Amino acid sequence: MTESLDLENWLRAQCSEYTFGLGGAYRIEGDHAWPLTAKDEVDLLKQLAAGGHILPLPKEPAALANVLEVGIVGFLIDRISSLTSAFAERGTERGYPDLEISGDAFGGGYHAIDIKVARRAVRKSGTPANKTQSAITLYTGNTYFKHPDLQFPGTFRPFADYTSHLDVLGIYTLDDKASGRVRDLELIVQQPWKIASEQRSSTTREYIGAVKDIDGAWCTDR
What we know:
This protein folds into two domains: 7-18 and 57-217, ECO RV Endonuclease, Chain A; 23-56, no CATH class. By secondary structure, the protein is of the alpha+beta class. The protein is globular and about 60 Å long. Strands 3, 4, 5, 6, 8 and 9 form a six-stranded mixed β-sheet that branches. It has a three-stranded antiparallel β-sheet with strand order 7-11-10. A two-stranded antiparallel sheet has the order 1-2. It has helices at residues 7-15, 41-50, 61-81, 192-195, 214-217, and strands spanning 25-26, 54-55, 87-90, 99-102, 110-122, 128-132, 137-140, 164-174, 182-190, 196-200, 207-210.
């Protein structure tokens, strides 16, 4: 019998190899001669940008977070598909979780993986700070977290039916000058209860927020 993998450590190992890899949004129409020949990916991006094919990604945090989340989920699904007896299911955009993992490779049962993305805060000097600009929302406190035995719309199953709950936290520095917008992306895998605060992430909704301190609270040895 093959020994099952520890999902938390496995996720950390995979996320350490992830790169964002988006240089902007591709526009079909452009202004250059065909065929287009490039010597490498950097040269290709340069030529596409010069030809009017590349549009900048949005700077608005929620919109840019959606782009990052789609890429991270797709990356993890590809990695899981390479394993024997491991299965992944992508969640809905506003449901929970973003990714459901199951199979004997991880000891059986169902595991909830939620992807959270936040921008680093920037000091007045312009240097990145060791905290997020705003509090990440971990759970909606008045739905599945409050009633773990009920299945809510947008969920695969009741909250309590999951063997484990893990968050993949993407922290980035906004680069206004780059069309890809994202610089110094760091992926942190953590159990959500370890980073939960006693404060809401919204003043109008019952959202459970994470602490903003990156180095002190999000380190993986807690």
